[in-house]
Predict the structure of Peroxidase.
Amino acid sequence: MAITKSFSLFSTVIFLLRITVDAQNYGTALQDNFYNSSCPDAETVIQKAVFAEVDKNLKLAAGLIRMQFHDCFVGGCDASVLLDGNDTEKTASVNQHLRGFEVIDVAKEAVEAVCPGVVSCADIIAYAARDSTIRLNGTGWAVQGGRKDGCVSFANAAEEELPPPTLNVSQLIDLFAQRGLSEKQMVILSGSHTVGVGHCDKFIERLYNFSETHSTDPSLNSTLAEQLKKECPPRNFNTTLEIFMDVITPGQFDAKYYVGLTKQEGLFTSDQSLFEDSRTNDIVKSLIDERTFEREFGKAMRAMGAVGVKSEGSVRLNCRMNNE
Ligand code: HEM
Ligand SMILES: *[C@@H]1O[C@H](CO)[C@@H](O)[C@H](O)[C@H]1NC(C)=O
Ligand SMILES: *[C@@H]1O[C@H](CO)[C@@H](O)[C@H](O)[C@H]1NC(C)=O
Ligand SMILES: *[C@@H]1O[C@H](CO)[C@@H](O)[C@H](O)[C@H]1NC(C)=O
Ligand SMILES: *[C@@H]1O[C@H](CO)[C@@H](O)[C@H](O)[C@H]1NC(C)=O
Ligand SMILES: *[C@@H]1O[C@H](CO)[C@@H](O)[C@H](O)[C@H]1NC(C)=O
Ligand SMILES: *[C@@H]1O[C@H](CO)[C@@H](O)[C@H](O)[C@H]1NC(C)=O
Ligand SMILES: *[C@@H]1O[C@H](CO)[C@@H](O)[C@H](O)[C@H]1NC(C)=O
């Protein structure tokens, strides 16, 4: 009787512990060095492939950092963004300029050659994002592994879940909170706009006929505004033209994005609002410190990389399609 009772108490405690652990990890236990016994060379092989591909076209590095965001915010970090098909996430207009898919393919082939069927595509996205920041002179972070790949991907889910650049701070805070991410983590993750580009259509509303009182967004630096007007004329602007988001050090993964915000040089409303809004202004200022930013960015990418992770699912053999 006593044994049964304490046993059942014991299993209740274990059960509750498991629920707590599961809740923290959104359904599965992610781990550092996840492949250390099942595929000890996985991280090295992936990094080598990512470095080699990104060195051929450095623009892809920013694409791969963005890839983790666009994967994790739509149905969790499950590589759904990689699936090919008529109406999958990658066909959505928000993903029109998303790039780096071929880099994932090369990394996947390389890791399949050493450990067939072991490393998930969702994990490869997380490693590739980290390795890309290292290639842009960032410091990197330890990436957790253990995600399973999902099997569904819908364009309209991407359109609904990913933010347009016109969002204000309230909307951004809400969107990140829905994934268990804090307003501080939202500001830190926005710091990835320290690399990469945007297109004219994403900010043109800030340049012309902005409001009844201001033809140009008053929170946009007037020197930068004049330059952007030349690059993006009101009509028939060049839709393929790429505009740097961090004009101070566009190719460096550093904290200069936040310095730019203090000079009203944020390219999108969603960037500049972080400095203008009293809820996030102090966070922006604290992240100007390089070491603080690098440390906090890694921590925030680990948190974003745990959103909606699946413990059930497959390890796709080809990241673009489900296994037979
Ligand atoms: C906070 C809300 C966010 C909004 C509204 C936003 C919006 C955008 C937009 C509109 C672009 C440019 C698209 C184009 O015209 O080509 C862009 C690019 C980019 N975003 Fe974000 N983003 C956000 C958060 C993030 C996060 C959390 C990350 C990663 C952690 C990220 C990483 C990037 C990168 C690296 C690029 C450049 C891509 C390239 O050069 O190919 N963004 N983002
Ligand atoms: C692999 O890494 C995990 C987590 O860091 C650790 O608990 C485990 O002991 C490691 N296994 C080996 C074989 O190194
Ligand atoms: C996409 O649609 C076309 C025409 O409807 C069809 O032939 C093709 O098989 C579809 N592709 C996939 C991957 O579903
Ligand atoms: C990284 O820094 C080194 C040394 O300062 C520099 O030579 C290199 O060009 C930088 N890499 C990038 C991508 O800017
Ligand atoms: C943010 O935008 C929403 C939707 O347009 C609006 O209702 C809200 O008042 C705005 N909040 C702030 C603080 O600007
Ligand atoms: C701005 O608004 C005016 C009056 O509505 C219009 O004539 C003009 O074409 C608009 N300019 C742009 C760039 O949209
Ligand atoms: C548009 O921009 C792209 C990319 O910078 C450039 O290659 C192309 O020549 C531009 N097209 C026109 C018509 O200026
Ligand atoms: C606008 O940008 C220029 C160039 O970076 C800078 O010197 C100036 O202080 C900025 N203006 C404002 C209001 O921050």
Observations:
- Confidence is low (pLDDT under 50) at residues 1-27.
